[in-house]
């Protein structure tokens, strides 16, 4: 069976995307212009999630396989309150990253009464990561919002069949631990302790590791979900 496929999102989901999903503009996505302290100080606080866009390269895929085997062998602590979903739709990683960011901060978000994302989260809370992925495949309201956002980007959306080797992940703080949420992986990755105050800096340290693994690559972009 042909896999579901959406148009890829640009590197900066804008305010309209959140508004179309029924989220009040108390939070906004802002670019992280650099990883040095003075550039991080320009990001409005508090920050409740960071999305990282990075290239899927051979080096990264090797690391991903080794990381998965290591965690399966040693185990890790993942709180049951972490909302995680698998990715079964090609090119949907931007929207899934956004769902991960919002879902794990839903207590901080103000949703419109008829919010399509609020309904999706309420319906899928008790589901497994695989069931959430299947539910998204059939959830028209989010697909339509994703497609319109992909078309509204500043650059022309690539063809739906074009192979895109850039991928979004979300970094979130759940219960004082920093989790990497990537629908291509079998489980969340616990990157250790964090706090509301240090979250942005801690998340950027994780982003730096991605960059260090692929020093020849320049295609990295971090955006923060910040208080408006």
From TrEMBL:
Q: What's an example GO cellular component term for this entry? A: cytoplasm
The protein's UniProt keywords, in alphabetical order, are:
Cytoplasm, Hydrolase, Phosphoprotein, Protease, Thiol protease, Ubl conjugation pathway
Query: Which Gene Ontology molecular function entries are recorded, alphabetically?
Result: cysteine-type deubiquitinase activity
Active site, UniProt feature: 93, 167
Give the top-rank taxon of the lineage listed in the UniProt record for this protein: Eukaryota
Xref: InterPro entries: Papain-like_cys_pep_sf (IPR038765), Peptidase_C12_UCH (IPR001578), Peptidase_C12_UCH_sf (IPR036959), UCH_AS (IPR057254)
Q: Which reaction does it catalyse?
A: Thiol-dependent hydrolysis of ester, thioester, amide, peptide and isopeptide bonds formed by the C-terminal Gly of ubiquitin (a 76-residue protein attached to proteins as an intracellular targeting signal)
Site (Transition state stabilizer) residue list: 87
The UniProt record lists the UCH catalytic domain at 5-227
SUPFAM superfamilies from the xrefs?
Cysteine proteinases
Query: Which residues does this entry assign to the site Important for enzyme activity?
Result: 182
Annotated GO biological processes are: protein deubiquitination; ubiquitin-dependent protein catabolic process
* CDD domains linked to this entry: Peptidase_C12_UCH_L1_L3 (cd09616)
Enzyme class, top EC level, equals hydrolase
Protein EC: 3.4.19.12
- Tell me if Cytoplasm is a UniProt keyword of this record: yes
Compartments annotated for it: namely: Cytoplasm
Similarity field: Belongs to the peptidase C12 family.
Subunit structure comment from the entry: Preferentially binds diubiquitin; the interaction does not hydrolyze diubiquitin but, in vitro, inhibits the hydrolyzing activity on other substrates.
Return the protein name. Answer: Ubiquitin carboxyl-terminal hydrolase
Specify the species: Daphoenositta chrysoptera
């Amino acid at each position: 069976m042909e896999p579901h496929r959406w148009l890829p999102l640009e590197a900066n989901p804008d305010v309209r995307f959140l508004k179309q999903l029924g989220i009040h503009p108390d939070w906004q996505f802002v670019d992280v212009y650099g990883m040095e302290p003075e550039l991080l100080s320009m990001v409005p606080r508090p920050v409740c999630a960071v999305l990282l866009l990075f290239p899927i390269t051979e080096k990264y895929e090797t690391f991903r396989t080794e990381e998965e085997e290591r965690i399966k062998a040693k185990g890790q602590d993942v709180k049951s309150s972490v909302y995680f979903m698998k990715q079964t739709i090609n090119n949907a990683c931007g929207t899934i990253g956004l769902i991960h960011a919002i879902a794990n901060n839903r207590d901080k978000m103000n949703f419109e009464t008829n919010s399509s994302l609020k309904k999706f989260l309420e319906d899928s809370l008790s589901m497994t990561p695989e069931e959430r992925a299947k539910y998204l495949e059939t959830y028209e309201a989010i697909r339509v919002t994703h497609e319109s956002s992909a078309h509204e980007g500043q650059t022309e959306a690539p063809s739906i069949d074009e192979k895109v080797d850039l991928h979004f992940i979300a970094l979130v703080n759940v219960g004082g631990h920093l989790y990497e949420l990537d629908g291509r992986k079998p489980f969340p990755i616990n990157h250790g302790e964090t706090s509301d105050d240090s979250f942005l800096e801690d998340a950027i340290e994780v982003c730096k590791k991605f960059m260090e693994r692929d020093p020849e690559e320049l295609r990295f972009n971090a955006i923060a979900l910040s208080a408006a």
